[in-house]
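Hi Y.,

Following your request, here is the sequence exactly as I used it, all 365 residues.
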Amino acid sequence: MVVRMRQPYLRHDYRLANAGTHIEEINIKDPIMDFYVTLEATNGATSNVENSMIDVLDRIEIIDGSDVLWALDSEEILANQFYHYKESTGLGIDERPAKIQKTIFKIPLGIGRMHPDVAFDPTRFANPQLVLEWDLENIRAVGADAFVTNTLDLNIMADVIDQAPARPTGYLMTKQLTEFLTTVGEHRVELPVDYAYRTMYVRAFKDAVCPQAYIEKVKHGLNEDKYRPFDIYADDWLEWLKEWYGLWHMSAWYFTAINATEDRNPYLRGNLGAALTEGAGVTALSLNSLANCLLNWTGANLAAAHIHAMVQGALPFGTWAWPYGDAESPDEWLQLEYTDKSRLTVTGLLADSTAQVFLTQHRMY
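Below is the corresponding structure, written out as tokens. Let me know if you'd prefer a different format.
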């Protein structure tokens, strides 16, 4: 049996307003493995410091009327992207004047390149739509030190199985379950039991603090802990994840002021290592530390300049992941009954870090 792929565009070089909501009809009949959503915009004439497409995109959803089929915010999307594809992802961060920043946000709905059973089947829904929310001014108003107004472009491409010989039986539904502020002690999250679990994600993020400083351990228990799929300390979980996923890398161009000591969020928040390259007009560049999971540097320069950083690390966007068996084998995923009680217990070390829990399930048709 020969299975072929094709990549239809729902939008290409489509100009968006500076802020808004875009609703795209999913007028595709073939099973969809992934969506590739690309956003790009142009920096102002001076610089665009700590303001990327990650900050512009608020969230992406797939809906069918009131039924939410898939929904994550921008950083959750990219964390899921790292873990699902097990590959480093270029984030397109470039703070230099007049440069175009471009980021691809991937929405995985199937497994492998063309798994016949696990893919998104639009024909199973009455009116499936892809919904984007964004604001080019989430960080700063458009201008010389931000994005240029009226330069935000959108591409939406689908990866589909062309003339599929059979219809899939389910797809990967990933949604945020809760967002909360950490406390010292336990925070309990009641989990759905409607579909099998493929991957659980726990995320903690606070500026200039490593995520493991806020979360001590996480436990998933079923039926009052009669069975525990996992019960693990956060620092050990970080080391365990390296065996499953290894370390990722990314690079970025940063704009630095005159003779400045500066820091940036590298988005890889565990086991961090980095190297900096001097840009034009910068001398005696030194990486001061990676304390608090930040890049921190000092450079001698007579004028505003730029540097290039390459970073290696784990915990993309401060996110831990727990795979319930082989991610490519649906038979190994955690099966549940409607009578089961499923609970996640997050034990915090410090208060006031934002935490999120999101989950990939195998939603059956």
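The radius of gyration is 21 Å.

Thanks again,
Q.
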